[in-house]
Amino acid sequence: MQTAVINDHPLAYCDAGEGIPLLLVHGFPLDHTIWDGQIDPLSRRRRVIAPDLRGFGQSGAADGTVTMEQFADDLAGLLDHLKICEPVVLGGLSMGGYIALAFWRKYAARLRGLILCDTRSAADTPSGAADRETLAQRMLAEGAETTVELMLAKLFAPATFAHRPEIVEAMQRVMSRTNPRSLAAAVRGMARRPDSTPDLPQIACPTLLLVGEDDALTPPAEMRGMAQKIPRARLAVIPEAAHLAPLERPAEVNWVFEEFMGALDQLKKSFPIGLKLSS
Ligand code: MLT
């Protein structure tokens, strides 16, 4: 891991390989290690950059509210720091997907392609946003264990709990050591994110949507609806995976990522909806 001060904040990031950059953005309340199944294999053929967002992992703690736009500004600042001027492929999982959409809104010219994993375009409902504030208060009062208790069971497919307990334990450790003020700041930022659904038809770059078939937090049906609104989108549904599909099923996910990015490398013009590994 390397560190840099980006927008006055210490940010840790992993930067491996060479070639067209793939920037991978983790979800809440995790860190870049959700991409452990991608960083090594994919960086043999291209440059992979995976930051710990402000407040998470080895980056400096955050406070107050961090909006999705602020996170996106940090990503743009990181690309500037790395002197990357060419358009990148940006992949985001769940909250990372909200951030990817915020990045697209502000920095579309810096994008060659978009990968939206286990995420949604809709904003929180008013009651959902109110629940987030209650959750933020609880995290501040009770610490990170509240987050672990609420989230752990929802992140993984039954097959992952049965056969890969080590990744469940690893994510539990990541959540447990996150600063509660940083957790609350991101929760408040998520509550403020706009509805990106009306924007989807304007996304001009090739877009891959990927979701675990057992994802109950951002279900395949919702992502299929998003794919139908994005002009150059394709959807991949990953069997025996839930909300952390790239970590749960790295081989399948890497195959889909490589296939998408290989097509981008050849500057193919059309990306029809329809790639599916399962229904
Ligand atoms: C995530 O995985 O990033 C979160 O579940 C997203 C959310 O809480 O909306």
* Broad structural category: alpha/beta
Largest sheet: 8 strands, mixed
How many strand segments? 8
Q: What number is the mean pLDDT?
A: 93
Q: Total domains, how many?
A: 1
CATH class: Alpha Beta
Low-confidence segments, ≥5 residues, pLDDT <50?
Answer: 268-279
The third-level CATH topology is Rossmann fold
CATH architecture: 3-Layer(aba) Sandwich
Amount of helix: 40-55%
Note the run of SSEs as H and E. EEEHEHEHEHHHHHEHEHH
Task: Give, in spatial order, the strands making up the sheet with the most strands.
Answer: 1-2-4-3-5-6-7-8
Radius of gyration: 17 Å
Q: How far is the first residue's CA from the last residue's CA?
A: 38 Å
CATH level-4 homologous superfamily: Alpha/Beta hydrolase fold, catalytic domain
Bound molecules: D-malate
Write up what this structure looks like.
- This protein has 279 residues and is of the alpha/beta class.
- It has a single domain (2-265), classed as Alpha/Beta hydrolase fold, catalytic domain (Rossmann fold, 3-Layer(aba) Sandwich), CATH 3.40.50.1820.
- The protein contains 11 helices and 8 strands.
- The chain has helices spanning 36-42, 68-81, 95-107, 126-142, 145-155, 158-163, 165-176, 180-191, 220-229, 245-248, 250-265; strands at residues 2-6, 9-16, 22-25, 48-51, 88-93, 111-117, 207-212, 233-238.
- Helix 1 (36-42) packs across helix 11, helix 4 (126-142) runs antiparallel to helix 8 (180-191) and helix 5 (145-155) packs antiparallel against helix 7 (165-176).
- The chain is globular.
- Mean pLDDT is 93; it is low at 268-279.
- It binds D-malate (MLT).
- D-malate binds at residues 27-28, 94-95, 190, 217, 243.
